[in-house]
Task: structure prediction
Amino acid sequence: MINVGCGRTPTVGWLNFDNSFTVRLARFPSCLRVLYYLKLASKESLISAPVIIQRNVAWADATKRLPLADESVAVVYSSHMLEHLDREGALRFLAEARRVLVHDGMIRLAVPDLRRRIIQYLEHGDGDRFMDSLNMRSHNLRTIQDKVRMLLVGDRDHRWMYDAESLSRLLNLNGFTNAAEVPPGVTHIEEPGELNLREREDESIYVEARRL
Result:
């Protein structure tokens, strides 16, 4: 069972992967501190580094290749990672997830709920607040520092947003079947262990599907 894009919340007893700059530098805390003082790394990176070491988080770019054999995984879980990928990147990730999953293996995705944000907008009517809630990139990279930080850390803004229906459709059209939303705390994964089934439930939807 693997957690892809785990960030600071790896799952105990699972294999955990993340493509963050922090994973590469976690074993070099002095380098991270220098970058932090130069404002090229965030405080979150300093906090995350010990967790990455303790939980043995491995680096991987899931839009290119997960370091696992074909059909070697029972479950792929990813929380608040898919929305950071553009449409092409999302399709590459799903293809890679399908490659490593066994037949009838399970994928569980948690993403920010676009529908919930739209409902909130209709209630308060503040367009700027709505746009802020999407966490899309709202500015161009104007300074050298911003551009260097982007090279080091990568793009952490949202590239696409989903509701339960659109995410289910994406899965069903790309090698998975029976995609459906599940409530927080509910899963069809057998023996999920310490997987957090309510991760960021105040803003998330959860969709599960099986590999064809």
The helical segments are 21-25, 29-37, 43-54, 87-100, 114-124, 127-134, 144-153, 164-172. The CA atoms of residues 141 and 147 lie 6 Å apart.
